[in-house]
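To close the chapter, one final illustration. This time we ask the reader to focus less on the individual chains and more on the assembly as a whole: which components sit near each other, and how the overall shape emerges from the parts.
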Amino acid sequence: MNIADYKGVWVFAEQRDGILQKVSLELLGKGKEIAEKLGVELTAILLGSNVDKLAEELVAFGADKVLVANSHLLKHFTTDAYTKVIAQLVKERKPEVILVGASYLGRDLAPRLAARLVTGLTADCTGLDVDMTTRNLLQTRPAFGGNIMATIECPDHRPQMSTVRPGVFEKLARDNQAKGTIEEVKFELEESDIRTKVVEAVKSLKDIMDISEAKIIVSGGRGVGTKENFALLKELAEVLGGSVAASRAAVENGWVDKAFQVGQTGKTVRPNLYIACGISGAIQHLAGMQDSDYIIAINKDATAPIMGAADLGLAGDLNRIIPELIAQIKAIKA
Amino acid sequence: MNIVVCIKQVPDTNEVKIDPKTNTLIREGVPSIINPDDKSALEEALVLKDSIGAHITVISMGPPQAEKVLREALSMGADEAILITDRAFAGADTLATSNALAGAIRKLDYDIIFAGRQAIDGDTAQVGPEIAEHLDIPQVTYVEKVELMGNELKVRRALEDGYEVITVKTPVLLTAIKELNVPRYMNIKNIYTAFQKEVKIWTANDIDVDKALLGLAGSPTKVRKSATKEAKGLGELINKPAKEAAEYAAHKLKELHII
Amino acid sequence: MNYALTKEQEFVKQMVREFALNEVKPIAAEIDQTERFPMENVEKMARYNMMGIPFPVELGGAGGDNLSYVIAVEELSKVCGTTGVILSAHTSLCAGVVYSFGTPAQKEKYLIPLAKGEKLGAFGLTEPNAGTDAAGQQTTAHIEGDHYVINGSKIFITNGGVADTFIVFAMTDKTKGTRGISAFIVEKEFKGFSIGKLEDKLGIRASSTAELIFEDCIVPKENLIGQEGRGFGIAMKTLDGGRIGIAAQALGIAEGAFDEAIKYMSDRKQFNKPLSAFQGLQWMVAEMEVKIEAAKQLVYKAAWCKDQGLSYSVEAARAKLFASEVAMEVTTKAVQIFGGYGYTKDYPVERMMRDAKITEIYEGTSQVQKMVIAASVLK
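The assembled structure is written out below.
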């Protein structure tokens, strides 16, 4: 492998049912930065069936070039088809970097591809940079359950591959005047190459009934005031993709079912994010949630015990703060 | 039916704490466990064994003490256990690891290979698919349901917003997520028979793979540096009007990649 | 002297610990509050071959040893004293009797289902007028052709209200004193057998503690254990083994309370410091820790002696006497460490304190244990 032969930054443009996944656009944003540092072209790789319109979108979001592989065999993702086609393109055109969104499909495709290309892959990168002396990609990622941040390099193999979680990088603003080349590529792919068959695809909302499994929890206590007011917390939970829980006071007031009670006589939870709304923070409640990764407390009383346990305490009226928070989060997610 | 299950011994990262004085990980006293996704993989194999009868071989690549998780797997009901261990594997990244495991699996009969989706220490989810590639067999990842229909499997694989049902012929590699099942405990009777069984120990010489593809030398990725994340400091208290407080909080959530 | 557990015993400990935390602990407070017998725990334990740990595989058991069984009772009792005694009474006082004294036919018919956990066992010795004075049996059994007819009653029988198989003691010859007592296997379906009062107790409230009533109860003569007149010896020998189980229960209760107290001491702050920073409490912790460790050594040694085929009567008495006293002391101190909170049902230590008391009483009161120990020394 002659490293010098490999030039160019590629981004795998994941589409599902003809819709470009947001993470791919975010990677174009970061990819542009890396391509500029390296002085090379940014190319998006698009596989699918009749997806030309998407190619234009990719240009508008920063791609200098889009390689489109068009086939009814590529309409729906399969490991075998996508790996075969992309591996062929890589062998022909030799990119130095490939970025893949760490979606469920991306994490299926990327390692298969990396093994086929006999190269290095770094998963779930939260940071990407270039070492200008070596032109190597510096890939930063969490390990050990998030307790360690490691910086990984792939010095002697190409392409350098990384997967990146959605929401880590920002997409560029859409530029309808942007210019780019769209090339439809030739490739070899037969039906017999594909060993799995998708017989059904179902969209369903994942209902987490057991709060001890939830990664994000919005919890309410006496300060919420009424059963109806829990709707506010439910909205916040929904916009975050999390679950609602409650302190014992809220449960005993009949505002929430006991299954959602957190605390000494309820459940113990350790989510990534615990937002305690109108909860004073009695020791019985803390026992059930103090090991959460990040705790936000919203309470009128800045001296409530919960504020001492929280990473971020917001002193104020939850009825005002929560709607603002919902609006802010929606804006960021858009 | 022959089933191979790949398992890994990992520290229970839930119990790992950071020493605030030295900013290093406190690893002593952290129990070693079977990686949770791998346990679900093993459980699914055991469910198949219970319903149609199957011979289950569990395999692990690790230091000598990884024998413990193999015995645990035997105590849960697996039939045979193999530990591949060798200095030559040291420093292996996921590609080199997958090469070693594939090299060992090449010597076994298998209809289905089960692996966990990802380990809680590495968190890469790469080894399973890489093994499938080396063995040139199809893969289905994020498996949350498995049904056997003759020599074909009907598998439900999870997506972020739903799922897909996929049919595939054996041999195939499946990676399991926790949602697949609730793993059983070790069985007291099996504990006693487990220790009467031999855990086979294989070295780099016993497996079918080019040595250049193993260990540090066979690892394309290298760790340039690693740092422990900051221990939790004191919390911040914001006493501002609702809009500003919310802005600050939302910004914090973005920083933490929660949104 | 090798103090280490075997690898198998370590695994048993790990398994039961996990099982106890995930399956038993979540319902422990509720079953105590509602006095509900946790049949689901029994069913799960049966599935994992926990109901016959020290019995051979051919007889339905797990093929383990007594120390493994003791460790299982200990781990269960750390989170639920009730579940610990359910297992102990079933294994030592019922299945154990058939194993040690039964004929091959009796083992086939009764031990296998008991060891597999398909049936639950109980031991009926105590009567309204025969507690510590166990020899004062008034329940009678007289032979009539191919069966015995039993009349009388038993009280305070652990697992009594839910068990399938009972070891019942009755006088077959009133003129012979203790040598007139015989042991029988009684099935709950036998004609003339019924369950009477269920006790409303201070602790182990989910344990089914029942009165057994025998009114011309028909028991086939094949269900006599050993020979007529051997019953008292069988009972005493059985209680020796049962004592080790109870000692394990007491040890587990003490350890459970201790673990809760330690955790609380790092969470709870007063005077701007965690409780663990106060020397008075640190000393209390040290005292508790040493006593628990001493109890553990006595319990494990008694089990070890039994496994080695050595005599274990005194060892069992020592273990039960000491471990039960340690349980009372440690649980009471644990409640003290929790202060006001510990006195409420929000925290489990008040239940552990209530559970501990019975270990000083049943299967031979502490006073009986002292009689045994003194007799062995002063013979």
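Residues 2-213 of chain B form a domain with the Rossmann fold fold (CATH 3.40.50.620). The mean pLDDT of chain B is 93. With these observations in hand, you are ready for the problems at the end of the chapter.
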